[in-house]
């Protein structure tokens, strides 16, 4: 199993040749390993609604059409400890059924097991938000969780 669920951080990472990416209901996180000593002026990063481009010291690292749309004005990148670039993209569609299967339309796809774990995580996150008074610390999702799980919004409270 190539990308286990990380209990402490609550993420299901998808490994790539340059680092990893993962998602929550609202955001997509991209972590790119760069040569130690990299400075911000060495980085060129363009974040658009459906497109991303990243180069470091003139070398293209990541470029292409994103899997789904993002809110351009809320995308950010940071250089951490001069060795890691963290990019945060805000999803336009923020429901549990919007689990990205890949970072780009044709690259960096999660394998089927990782995709399943990502969908479970997003469904559990949705349940936590809908039921803030419940403790979900030991909860597991099984059954119908694809596309965000069953919709209970029409039930009377």
From TrEMBL:
<dbReference type="InterPro" id="IPR007052">
    <property type="entry name" value="CS_dom"/>
</dbReference>
<protein>
    <recommendedName>
        <fullName>NudC domain-containing protein 2</fullName>
    </recommendedName>
</protein>
<keyword id="KW-0995">Kinetochore</keyword>
<keyword id="KW-0597">Phosphoprotein</keyword>
<keyword id="KW-0007">Acetylation</keyword>
<dbReference type="InterPro" id="IPR008978">
    <property type="entry name" value="HSP20-like_chaperone"/>
</dbReference>
<feature type="domain" description="CS">
    <location>
        <begin position="14"/>
        <end position="104"/>
    </location>
</feature>
<dbReference type="InterPro" id="IPR037898">
    <property type="entry name" value="NudC_fam"/>
</dbReference>
<dbReference type="GO" id="GO:0000776">
    <property type="term" value="C:kinetochore"/>
</dbReference>
<comment type="function">
    <text>May regulate the LIS1/dynein pathway by stabilizing LIS1 with Hsp90 chaperone.</text>
</comment>
<dbReference type="Pfam" id="PF04969">
    <property type="entry name" value="CS"/>
</dbReference>
<keyword id="KW-0206">Cytoskeleton</keyword>
<keyword id="KW-0158">Chromosome</keyword>
<keyword id="KW-0963">Cytoplasm</keyword>
<comment type="subunit">
    <text>Interacts with LIS1.</text>
</comment>
<keyword id="KW-0137">Centromere</keyword>
<dbReference type="GO" id="GO:0005813">
    <property type="term" value="C:centrosome"/>
</dbReference>
<dbReference type="GO" id="GO:0051082">
    <property type="term" value="F:unfolded protein binding"/>
</dbReference>
<dbReference type="GO" id="GO:0000922">
    <property type="term" value="C:spindle pole"/>
</dbReference>
<dbReference type="GO" id="GO:0006457">
    <property type="term" value="P:protein folding"/>
</dbReference>
<feature type="region of interest" description="Disordered">
    <location>
        <begin position="134"/>
        <end position="157"/>
    </location>
</feature>
<dbReference type="GO" id="GO:0005737">
    <property type="term" value="C:cytoplasm"/>
</dbReference>
<dbReference type="InterPro" id="IPR037902">
    <property type="entry name" value="p23_NUDCD2"/>
</dbReference>
């Amino acid at each position: 199993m190539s990308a286990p669920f990380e209990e402490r951080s609550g993420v299901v990472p998808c490994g790539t040749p340059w680092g990893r990416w993962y998602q929550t209901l609202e955001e997509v996180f991209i972590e790119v390993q760069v040569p130690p000593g990299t400075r911000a002026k060495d980085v060129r990063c363009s974040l658009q609604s459906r497109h991303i481009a990243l180069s470091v010291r003139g070398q293209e690292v990541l470029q292409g059409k994103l899997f789904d749309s993002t809110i351009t004005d809320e995308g950010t990148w940071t250089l951490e400890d001069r060795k890691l670039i963290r990019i945060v993209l805000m999803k336009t569609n923020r429901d549990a059924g919007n689990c990205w299967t890949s970072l780009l339309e044709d690259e960096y796809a999660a394998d089927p097991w990782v995709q399943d774990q990502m969908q479970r995580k997003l469904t559990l996150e949705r349940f936590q938000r809908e039921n803030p008074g419940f403790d979900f610390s030991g909860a597991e999702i099984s059954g119908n969780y694809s596309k965000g799980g069953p919709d209970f919004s029409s039930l009377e409270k």
